[in-house]
Design a protein that fits this description.
Layout (H helix, E strand, L loop, with lengths): L32 H4 L5 H13 L4 H24 L1
Helix pairs in contact: 2-3
């Protein structure tokens, strides 16, 4: 007779997830000029700032912001490659 799922024992120990609160990872927002030296591009800075600002929007609105930032970065890199 098959055993019910409730009767099965878990073969792996319980592993809790990460604690709530701030998570480690890259800093959100544009890097300071000290981090990058003097090499800056205004369009890239604007796209990075737009992505940082999108974090505060509802998820449905974030998608449009991320797509616009992606397009700006793609176009900027294409113009840099051509020069």
């Amino acid at each position: 007779m098959p055993r019910d799922r409730a009767d099965r024992q878990v073969s792996t120990p319980f592993r809790p997830g990460p604690p709530p609160g701030a998570r480690p990872g890259p800093r959100v927002g544009p890097a300071s000029s000290d981090d990058l030296g003097e090499v800056r591009h205004p369009a890239v800075d604007a796209a990075v700032q737009a992505m940082a600002n999108a974090a505060e929007l509802p998820p449905a609105d974030q998608i449009a912001q991320y797509e616009a930032a992606y397009e700006t970065l793609r176009e900027t890199l294409a113009t840099i490659d051509q020069s």
